[in-house]
Design a protein that fits this description.
Helix content: 10-25%
Number of helices: 3
Strand content: 35-45%
Largest sheet: 4 strands, mixed
Shape: globular
Length: 134
Amino acid sequence: MSQDIWFNLPVQDVEKATSFFNEIGFKAMNVGSERAMLSIGQTTIMLFPYATFEKFTGARAVDTSHSAEVIISIGAESRDEVDSFVQKVERAGGSIFGKPSETDGWMYGAGFADLDGHRWNLLYMDESKMPKRQ
């Protein structure tokens, strides 16, 4: 069985979504007229218009202004990367729902929503401060 994994997300406007993700530093490109491919590390995320997404799933897409369907977490290399990334998201038109902060003394992250309200988390984990297992 293939080990490739990709996610499919519904978007209002494929062109605008592609531009947003490129502005924040991801690699996004249109693939045909009605879809785009977003690459983050070894993960691929496909962006589809809502109607296409709903046809694939046989269900209505979540209204992200009232609900969250998933949060996609991405690892960061440093606290500074988290901070500068949040600034890129704001400049590109995304919204920050979780300002950069530390949790449990070893995790530092922030949460943001893209133009379509999909929720993302950027997280730096300082493994040298991670609690040891007993």
